[in-house]
Amino acid sequence: MGAEQACGCERLNQEFGHLQGQWWWLFLFGALLAVCGAAAVIFPALTVLTTVTSVLILGIVLMVAGIATVVASFWTGKWSGMLVQLLVGILYLVAGYLITEKPLAAMAVMTLFMAAVCIVIGVFRIVAALVVQFPCWGWALLNGLITFLLGVIIYRQFPESGLWVIGLLVGIEMLFHGWSWIALSLAVKQLPKAAA
Asked: Distance between CA atoms of 168 and 38, rounded to whole angstroms?
């Protein structure tokens, strides 16, 4: 197992070695994502804009997926799953169209869904941590409490929370995604020269 791990690390170093000279592109990309994510989190107007943009992009993606699924269902010919694929494609198209036509209503539905998911997941994590008490179960309990409280806060602030929740979550995701690219770029920069 040790030899396989060493071989895997060496192969990974070789794959990333060709990026060593251009590590700063990865760094700039990560910094751009982190700045955009931080801006979406810090500035309320950008958070609302990010929320609306995210919902509209979701609608467009669903419509494109719907068209592709409908075309693919006919392209594959007569098979038992054709009707199901056709119906799924139509469902994607209708859902995408409704989301782009009524983005505020879609934001409200998504916000309530996120609140419900956070509350249910939080309860499950709390119960699991208290019942099983696995190693470090206190962290799982804290995680469950925070997730549960987040769901309650989102629900209690509804409908106003519909304007900021999705944008805030997208902003946080972009911020951390950017930091991961920055970390990767710095790791690629530090690779041994032999790997390049």
From this structure: 9
Write down the domain spans for the chain.
23-195
The position carrying tokens 């592709």 is 68
Q: Does position 147 have pLDDT exceeding 90, yes or no?
A: no
Nearest to 196 by CA among 25, 22, 72: 22
Residue 7 is predicted with a pLDDT of 55
Nearest to residue 36, comparing CAs of 55, 49, 22, 52?
A: 49
Helices (H) and strands (E) in the chain, counts: 7, 0
Gap between the Cα atoms of 127 and 130, Å rounded: 5
Tell me the pLDDT band of 8, cut-offs 50, 70 and 90.
low
Q: Residue 43, exposed/middle/buried by CB under 10 A (0-12, 13-18, 19+)?
A: middle
Mean pLDDT of 81-103: 85
